[in-house]
């Protein structure tokens, strides 16, 4: 579970940090300010982590980040003044950012393009699942009567499992398909060959030319803007949804409980949407449909300003929550699908993670308590940004359709095959050429002659 969300739960339960040196009213600004402070440090970590994953032992890096993330959460429960709290929350944001950028990239090293969506959705879908249980857990923990303040228990209990599982990751997480200890030699060979002709993940180093190409690829910037729009709702709903429900007239415990079903439904829809996307090889259309659903939800919340129509507004909460999480997950998968080498993937993820997270600045100030109970400004911004997702997803889809037609016609003119699926080759080594950067010449494992293999953009 993400401990950052628990600050908002504490605030909803009116749990003030009374045993710290500062006054409670000074501490209460933390839920919004921490979102700013957390993101201030993202730009120092995110450009480094994805690009360097191929230069170090990947599982060791993720293990260290994962363990440090949990340790920072536990330390948040041991602070005694505002300065210590801010330091812990900044570190928590740094490690969260590193893991959030590195984990999807790491998955892309193990799975084919049409297998990646489901795996990324399981990873990122844990966020709404965590939200589903975090509210109930926060409510239970904050009602513990003990000599230690309940808010301290909250952070300690949330961070301890993360530290424990980081040790498990160290011993069981493989570094690449070719080094998986739970596979025999034949299975490791097959795992590598089904992805590519040689095990790039174990041998490659940072390719600066690919990093430059990743930084200048227009697709990465479109994905970044889509992520920027998605992340407004991703961060805003996670931090403020219980407060929004509370201001609809529900008690604190009912607000915590009513926040859980939309989160659980969004996880299910996130996985289902990813399975459909993988099955048919379509990312952009599903992102557009999901974002349109979220846009309708925000529109309902912004327009319906009648305290007697809580049922209608609660429907808006459902639509907004269930629409945004699938769009965010599939967008990250889409970026990873259409990159050439590992370094180019890392560069793309760095751009997305650094600039895409900046919408957290907006979401952390878009739902002030003074604008309750309707929060028109925050919901209107959410509606506008989710509408932008629809436009940009459909625009990128149309552009990639055109690019694929150009590449296919080029290959046909050369008398070669425009399909790579015939031989089951899922990834290739890229060469520099206007329309042939996706082509590799190599000797087929099943045929003696040399063939062209071509990979197209996933749409």
From TrEMBL:
GO MF, one example: transmembrane transporter activity
One Pfam entry name: MFS_1
Q: Which residues cross the membrane?
A: 59-79, 86-106, 118-141, 153-173, 258-277, 284-304, 316-336, 348-368, 374-397
GO cellular component annotations, sorted alphabetically? membrane
Q: Provide the alphabetized UniProt keywords.
A: Membrane, Transmembrane, Transmembrane helix, Transport
How does the record say this protein sits in the membrane? Multi-pass membrane protein
Subcellular location, in the record's words? Membrane
Tell me where in this chain the Major facilitator superfamily (MFS) profile domain is found.
Answer: 1-405
Give the protein family.
Answer: Belongs to the major facilitator superfamily.
Task: Report what the protein is called.
Answer: MFS transporter, putative
Q: Which organism is it from?
A: Aspergillus fumigatus (strain CBS 144.89 / FGSC A1163 / CEA10) (Neosartorya fumigata)
């Amino acid at each position: 579970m993400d401990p950052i969300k628990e600050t908002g739960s504490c605030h909803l339960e009116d749990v003030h940090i009374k045993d710290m040196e500062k006054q409670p009213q000074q501490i209460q600004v933390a839920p919004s300010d921490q979102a700013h402070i957390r993101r201030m440090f993202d730009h120092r970590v995110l450009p480094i982590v994805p690009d360097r994953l191929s230069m170090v032992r990947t599982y060791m890096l993720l293990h260290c980040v994962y363990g440090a993330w949990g340790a920072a959460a536990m330390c948040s429960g041991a602070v005694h003044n505002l300065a210590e709290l801010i330091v812990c929350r900044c570190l928590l944001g740094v490690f969260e950012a590193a893991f959030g950028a590195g984990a999807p990239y790491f998955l892309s090293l193990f799975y084919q393009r049409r297998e990646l969506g489901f795996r990324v959705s399981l990873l990122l879908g844990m966020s709404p699942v965590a939200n589903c249980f975090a509210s109930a857990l926060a409510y239970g923990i904050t009602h513990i009567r003990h000599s230690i303040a309940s808010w301290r228990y909250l952070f300690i209990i949330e961070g301890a499992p993360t530290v424990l599982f980081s040790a498990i990751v160290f011993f069981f997480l493989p570094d690449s398909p070719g080094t998986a200890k739970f596979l025999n030699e034949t299975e490791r060979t097959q795992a590598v060959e089904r992805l590519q002709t040689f095990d790039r993940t174990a041998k490659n180093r940072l390719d600066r030319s690919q990093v430059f190409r990743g930084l200048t690829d227009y697709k990465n910037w479109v994905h970044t803007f889509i992520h920027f729009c998605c992340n407004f709702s991703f961060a805003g709903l996670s931090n403020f949804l219980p407060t929004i429900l509370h201001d609809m007239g529900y008690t604190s415990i009912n607000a915590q409980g009513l926040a859980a079903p939309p989160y659980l439904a969004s996880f299910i829809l996130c996985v289902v949407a990813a399975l459909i996307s993988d099955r048919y090889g379509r990312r952009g259309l599903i992102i557009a449909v999901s974002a349109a659903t979220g846009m309708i939800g925000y529109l309902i919340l912004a327009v319906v300003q009648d305290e007697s129509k809580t049922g209608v507004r609660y429907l808006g909460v459902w639509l907004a929550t269930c629409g945004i999480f699938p769009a965010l997950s599939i967008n990250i998968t889409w970026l990873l699908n259409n990159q050439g080498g590992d370094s180019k993937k890392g560069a793309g993820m760095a751009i997305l993670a650094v600039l895409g997270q900046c919408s957290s600045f907006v979401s952390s100030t878009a739902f002030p308590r003074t604008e309750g109970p309707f929060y028109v400004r925050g919901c209107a911004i959410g509606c506008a940004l989710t509408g932008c997702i629809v436009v940009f997803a459909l625009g990128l889809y149309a552009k990639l359709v055109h690019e694929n037609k150009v590449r296919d016609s080029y290959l046909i003119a050369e008398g070669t095959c425009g399909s790579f699926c015939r031989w089951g080759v899922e990834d290739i080594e890229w060469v520099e050429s206007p329309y042939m950067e996706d082509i590799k010449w190599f000797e087929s494992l099943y045929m003696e002659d040399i063939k062209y293999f071509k990979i197209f953009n996933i749409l």
